[in-house]
Every structure is written in C-alpha cells, then in structure tokens.
Design brief:
Length: about 270
C-alpha cells in the first residue's frame, strides 16, 4: 500500500446510473442534441457547451488529479468512443465496467484494479464539484467525506432548497470524526441532527480499506449496495472517516430541469483536458 502521505492523484467517477430522472420528459425546452442525450439517460455526455463530463474532468485536473477512472455500464459505448478519441494532456481516462447497476458500493468495487494500493477520491458523475473543494479533500489524509453547509449549497448551487433537504446528512462528533451518514433523512431525523448537520454530495476520499468494507455489506431496502453502508462499516471497524466541512456549491445534473441552469453556470468555463 502506498503511504497515506503520498499525493492523491486518482479519482473514480461514478457514471453508471440509469438516468431514470433524466429520461423523464418534463416539457422543459432542450436543444435537439440535449433531448437525445436526455432520452438516452447518459448524463455525462449532456451537451452544456461541451459534454458535461469534459467540464468535470478539466476541473479534476485543476485540482491536481492525474488519473480518472469512469465507472460505466456495458451499454455506454458512446462514452468509451468519445474519450478514446480525445487528446488528453493533463489527465488520463480509463474505464471500469459495472455489469449491472447494483449500487454505488458495487461501482466503487468495479474500480479496484484501477486503484491498486493507492488512496483515491470518489465522486458522482452527474455532479460538478469545484476545484477548491476537491483540493481540500485531497489534502485531508485517510478516509474522508466532504460535508457541505446547507445554506451554502442553496446559495451557490443550482439545487433548490427542497431538494437539498432530501440529501444525506452527516452526523459527526466534535473531534471531526463521522459517526453516521443518514440517507434521505426524515424531518424528525433532520431535527435530531440539528441545523448545522452537513450534507453529503457523495464526494469521498478512501484508502483501499473501503474495498473490504464494501464486500461485507448487504443490499439496502432499495436492493442496492450503498457506499454509505460501506462507510458505516469502516467506522464500525475503527478505520475512522473524517468530516471535511466546506461552504461551497455543487452543480447537479440529475434531471432535465437542471440542464439550463448547468448550461448557464458553465458558460465560459475553460475546458483543458
């Protein structure tokens, strides 16, 4: 295993989702290209000036990552073909295939060969995170999760407050160690955690310990192997997961209603791969 002090240069991008919410036609105006991408459910290739994932990869490189692994499905030939033909000078792109959409922990396991013995970062393929937040996460040793301030997310993201309130909340102690991550918290759970509880946007840093933890979990009530359950296993095992608190935003591209706001937010964003 590479020492934890070694620079973290690998990032795993979870791009395997079925895109069910993106496929749902809500009647919002899209270009013909955008309509085709939405109908296919391939959010990573949504044209927002350039394919959405181009903007993400460029920002990963800005943050200091040099190797990206896209976890995709066997049907995502267009993603393979596109990045197979793109000249890349700042970040390399490889692929890991998740045969079935069995959840985020299973997707991370698909990237185990890419990771090897190195520390790495995991992000959602339909979220655009800022370089500043990714740099902060890279600089935090060990296993860690970014915790977003709720008011900051509303102020600096394209996500309305009602959606933010449905996101996972992080329970952490005064020592900065994560105690739990509560998915889709009920109003009662949110009240119990308090107004200062941080929001998880699936932006993690892991040591290779996560793979053994992911193999030990059972499917959630949704029938999926969830990365949050693997994180809980790490905590139970005493591995420790640090909270990385940030006041920042995230662009979310999970549904058709998000396309116009993401397009506006990324207008003029320079892409350098």
């Amino acid at each position: 295993m590479v020492p934890d002090t070694a620079p973290t240069v690998k990032i795993v991008v979870l791009a395997r989702g079925l895109g069910s919410r993106m496929r749902e036609d809500t009647g919002v105006p899209l270009t013909e290209e955008q309509r085709r991408a939405a109908a296919a459910g391939v959010k990573a290739m949504m044209p927002v000036g350039r394919p959405f994932l181009d903007h993400c990869l460029s920002t990963y490189a800005d943050a200091g990552f040099r190797e990206a692994c896209l976890v995709i499905g066997p049907e995502h030939r267009a993603i393979r073909d596109y990045y197979g033909s793109q000249p890349m000078s700042r970040i390399t792109v490889t692929f890991a295939e998740q045969a079935e959409p069995r959840g985020t922990a299973d997707a991370v396991l698909a990237a185990e060969d890419f990771v090897g013995g190195d520390r790495f970062v995991v992000v959602n393929g339909d979220n655009f995170y800022t370089a500043a937040t990714l740099q902060t996460l890279r600089a935090t040793p060990g296993n860690a999760v970014v915790g977003y301030d709720r008011s900051g997310l509303v102020e600096m993201s394209n996500v309305p407050a009602e959606r933010v309130h449905a996101f996972a909340l992080i329970a952490a102690g005064p020592d900065g160690q994560v105690r739990d991550i509560v998915e889709k918290p009920s109003p009662e759970q949110a009240d119990m955690l308090g107004p200062d509880a941080r929001v998880s946007m699936n932006c993690f840093a892991f040591t290779p310990e996560i793979f053994a933890a992911a193999r030990r979990i059972s499917p959630s009530p949704r029938g999926e192997l969830e990365i949050t359950d693997a994180v809980r296993t790490l905590i139970t095992d005493g591995a420790g997961v640090r909270l990385v608190p940030v006041y920042d935003g995230v662009l979310d591209l999970s549904r058709r209603d998000d396309v116009s706001s993401v397009t506006r937010a990324l207008a003029g964003h320079e892409v350098r791969l």
